[in-house]
Amino acid sequence: MTVFETRPIPATGHTPGNWVDSDPATCTEGGTREQLCSKCGAVLATDTISPKGHNWGAWEGGSEPTCTSGSNETRTCGDCGATESRSEGALGHDYYLAYTEQDTLTNPGSVIQIDHYRCSRCGDEYTNSYSNGP
Fold first, then answer.
1. What is the pLDDT of residue 31?
2. Which residues contact 85 (CB under 8 A, 6 or more apart)?
3. Does this model's pTM top 0.70?
4. How many domains is the chain built from?
5. Coil, strand or helix: which one is 120?
6. 36: how many CB neighbours lie within 10 A of its CB?
């Protein structure tokens, strides 16, 4: 007859191993990670992971704003596909006094001054007239 003896085996304790993402973080949501025992795989610690933030690509689709129209551009996150847009308003005209002329023939005895203004960006023009006579 064989007799077996029962003896306690002393525990060796856990050995902290690598951290593993148990619930990976996304661009906008945090996640969790766990440190596992390298011997038995038991979870020894849990930690939170901050959101990664978006991995934005380059701005696309926009044209340069002009005097009278603005620009719209869009970019996309390379990780989750989220999109973001931005707009830039029209620049508005940048007029300068291009030249001045005087009209003395329309109303004898008076002088009409005509100021010609031109936009430095697009070339649009307008005039203002002033009279200094009877």
1. 96
2. 72, 73, 74
3. no
4. 3
5. coil
6. 19
